[in-house]
Amino acid sequence: MSISLISHSEGQEILTGNKSDVIEFMIWGLSNTPKLQPVLFLVFFLIYLLTVFGNIVIITLIFSDNHLQKPMYCFLCNMSFLDISYSTVTAPYMLYTFITGNKKLSIKRCMVQLYFFNSFASAEYLLLTTMAYDRYMAICKPLSYPQAMNQRACFYLAVTAWISGFLAALPVTVLSSALSFCASNVINHFFCDVTPLLKLACNDTIAIELTMFTEGVVLLFSCFLLTVMSYIYIISAILKIQSTEGRHKAFSTCASHLTVVILFYLLVVGVYMKPTSSYSLDEGKFLSVLYVNIIPMLNPFIYSLRNKDVKDALSKAYKERLQNTHL
Prior knowledge:
The longest helix has 34 residues, at 107-140. The protein is mainly alpha-helical. The protein has 11 helices and 5 strands. It has one domain (16-310): Rhopdopsin 7-helix transmembrane proteins (Up-down Bundle), CATH 1.20.1070.10. A 3-stranded mixed sheet has the order 4-3-5. The protein has a two-stranded antiparallel sheet with strand order 1-2.
C-alpha cells in the first residue's frame, strides 16, 4: 500500500531540508475507499455498542448480586471497566473519521491517545496476572484463600494494577513526544500507536525501542511467566482431584480467564514483540483490530457463557425483570 505525502498547503507539515516540523498527523485508517466508510462505521459502531453494553451488564450484575461478591468477580468488574476504557480510547475517534472523513490528529491528542492506550494495555496485563493468582489461591490453597484474598487485599491488588499501568506508559510517551518526523506525517494505523509512529521518525529511535523491549521483558514477560506458573500449579491440582465432577467444577472456575489470557497474549505478542524494521503495518492493523475492538467485545460473552455463577446471576436478573414487567 503506497502512502502519499500530505501537501504543505493543507498545513500538515512544514519541510525543512530532510526534516519536517509536523503540526499534526493524518491517520490513514482501515480504508480510504469512500464507499466502505458507511459500512465500516456501522460494523465498528455495533462492536463498540456491544462492548460497552456487555461490560456494563457484567459490572451491574457483580454490584447487584450478593453471590458475585467474591474476589474473582471484583477483578472481573475491573476488567470490564478496563475493556470499556480500552475501547473508548480508539473507537469514538475511529467512528468520527468514518462519518466526517476528517483524519487530522494533533500531536498533543496523538500523545494523549498513545498514553492512555498504553496505560490500559499495561493495566490489563497486571489484572490478568492478578486474576491468575486469585485462581491459584482458590484451587491450590483453598484453606488460606479467604484470609489471603480478602476484600482489602483485592482492593490493593486492583489499585496497584491500575497505578502501575499508568506509570508504565509514561516513559514511551515522553520519549515519543520528543521525536522529530520526516518524509510523511501519515500514520498508517487507525489510532496513534507507537510502532507506526516510530516508522515516521527522523531521529534515532533506539532509546524508545530499548525502553519498549525492557518494559516488554519486565512487565509483559514477567506477567506471562507468573500466569503460566499459576496455571501449571492449577492444572496439577485439578488433575489430583478424584471425581470427574470435581475436576470439571474446578476447571470451569478458571476456563474463561484462561481463554481470555491465551487470546490476549497471542495477539499482543504478534503486534509488539518484534523489531520495528520487520513490522508489517497492514498486519499490525489487522491484529490491532482483534485485540483493541474484538476481544473487549467478546470478554463479557466469554465470562458469561463459561461461568456458572455469572449465568445464574443473568438468569436471576432476567426472571426478576420479567416478574416486575408483569406486575
